Amino acid sequence: MSVSKSLYLAGFRCSALALSVAFSAQASAAGATPEVVNVIGQGAQLEQALQDQRMSDSVESVVHADAIGQLPDDNAAEALQRVPGVSVERDQGEGRFVRVRGLGADLNSVTINGTLVPAPEDDRRAVALDVLPSELVQSLSVVKTLTPDMDANSLGGTVEVESLSGFDHPDTFYSLSSEASYNDNTGKTSPKVSGAISNRFSVGQGIDNFAVAAALSWEDRTFGSDNVETGGAWDFDDASGARLEELEERRYDISRKRLGAGLNFDFRPDEDTDLYLRTLYSRYKDTETRQANVIEFADAQLPGERGDAEGTREVKDRSETQEIKSFVLGGERRIGDWTLSSQYGYSEASEDSPLHIPGSKFVGNSDFSDAGYDSSREPNVKISDAVYQAGNFTLDEIEREKQLTTDTEQNIRIDLTRDYYWQDLASQVKFGTKFSTRTKDNDLEVWAYEDLTNAGFTIDQLNLANFVNGNGKLGPEIDAGALEQLIAGLNPADFYDAEQSRINDFSIEENINAAYIMNTVDIDDLRIIAGLRYEGTRLKAKGTGINDGSFEAVNERNDYHHWLPGLHAIYQLNDSSQLRAAWTNTVVRPTFGQLFPGFVIDGDEAEFGNPQLDVLESSNFDLGIEHYMGKAGAVSAFVFYKNIENFVYSADLAGTGEYAAFAEAKTYANGDKADVYGLELAYSQQFEWLPAPWNGLLLSANGTFTRSDADIEQFNPDTGNMTSRSISLPGQSDTSGNLTLGWENDRMSLRVATNYQSDYLDEVGNVLDKRYDTHVDDQFFVDISAHYFLTKQLQVFVEAQNITDESYYAYTGDRSFNAQYEEYGPTYKVGLSLTHF
């Protein structure tokens, strides 16, 4: 008997954390072929989820494609929010970035088919998973304890995305889905179409040894949001109370077009060889028009007060396209007790923003009277009607820019595995190496059209009345197209902003060489995995700085090495329960925005990135117990602790070192250490033993409770000494959780899914004064879905997202003081789905 088979029969299972969503996977199969749902559907899906998790030596949570389809989730990020320990950062109400165990998205990593996914944004490492339509995904997993054969580049966890394979289904498989969604905020209806197909073929002397799978998804979503924000413009030093200096009303109209495609090939020429080619392409076009009404008070005001104010009308109009391309070629060959596997991966992410208007400003011809607001949490502007009359404003400036960011990653990986017996104990040794190179490039071009009267324009031409296209919620809307026509005859070279254009251009190259060795041994009911990983990193950063008007080339290098031991243990208490423990060590590189090589020095003020930042190093400890309770029942509890060194935060170095004579020196610095500890609970159950119709009930609940403590410091000019204070890590929510209640029979499937995440620190505003920190308030979302099978293969479904109209609220220091308040409205869907397998 082979060691791999003996290990499997020993009954070792992966973490049951994912069982809180696994029941959704097997329940969703109830919607595939209702006549056989009780015989094949639920059991098959449960076995699939358990098989994936049994073969994992890590604490891992998994969501399968069918489970994703049963919940009203538009993209990979929203599907993952149902997993224990996972919450999402939202943009315009859509799930975008994933946080694991309360840790910010930049502290985690994402792979597609085993190769790292780079980030389209110029300043981040975090991958915006809303660019991946859920239809292209066969499975999503979150690995929370890394074994030495995995990249050590995450603190919370690694999100692994697997696309569809032709061997996932025994015969011909296809699915086709179409839907229409309605956004209550805009009153717009949006279409979506998706489909997938796979089949097996016989090649040469083999039978069904060649598989092909393809998937396609297209969506054109139109929606919007209403916003009021202060940007933290509060003065907390007045004895009478916090006074507001300015506020802004905004209206967003947004169109997001998603196109995703995947084409995969698998070939098994003999029983010992597997070859594969995985490709994935995702295109995400985001078009946004933002109208804004900015009120700046002559004197900072309390709620209810009235006074004079300056008024400004602004418009932003831009379109950006994000693309992700992934190409993975690999194979595996078994030779006796040895297994050789190798893989080449290439991935590219880009964000292209062609020439657009990032901002334009119309200033009031005079101050407006009787200006104020009536709430510090959701400021409602009170001002004279003159601020909504177009003729009272004159065009002041127009900005135009274009930007292209590319992030490419290539890697080659080779692994060797040997099964053997050590003193009659089933064992396995595995070792390998990986070489990867990553390059992030950013190119920004900026033009600032100012002093337009000097360009020959008259006041009548620059009056807002000439550039309106309707009467919106904030008064007359500015027509961005008319603004571009206005300046079309001007010579762009006369308005080129060389400083902004050159300072924001950079290239950062990151090469990582890695090697590892690990050994697994089974001692009766105990499995022990011990290993060591080495990662050596070479960083090169090129950019431009400006020192009191003079440009200077910047070339920075930073090399470092890490030895990362790891130890995992799994103890089988009985057939239904097991204990897990893990000690792992990981490293996370700072974001590209923090490593930014450019700088600006203007007199005694400076702002710059820091390519010499130390990497974040973390020692991680996990301990948990899992208990399985029949067909779809499981309960689990895990505690975890992370000791993080060199975490990064925004800092002002003025008054210290070479910046002793500066009044301001904004950059990024390494903190000493941070501690993260938490508890993760999960429960799921299918109540099949209850009498009908209650035997169709399904319940899933999970919660993660996290705390973090980090110290930051800054020079205090009032005392002449360094002042420190404790904070939570930015992006870390103390509490996150999910509750899903479902019911189904042979033809109908119903789901109510709720998701909660508590407030978190978003940004340190002033190291010396926590009152200026920005926090994001807690959020509670409720989504529902209903699927009904008209035939064995055809189902109709209706879904509703955010039915409670949950808003996004960020505050400054205290919940009473607005930083940003935004509403999106509910979204309703109806559609048809055809599936055959």
Automatic annotation (TrEMBL):
The record's subcellular locations are: Cell outer membrane
Protein name (database record): TonB-dependent receptor
> Carries keyword Ion transport?
no
Q: Which family does it belong to?
A: Belongs to the TonB-dependent receptor family.
- What is the membrane topology here? Multi-pass membrane protein
Coiled-coil positions are none
Query: At the top level of its lineage, which domain of life is listed?
Result: Bacteria
Location of the TonB-dependent receptor-like beta-barrel domain = 367-803
Stretch forming the signal peptide? 1-29
Q: Which UniProt keywords apply?
A: Cell outer membrane, Membrane, Receptor, Signal, TonB box, Transmembrane, Transmembrane beta strand, Transport
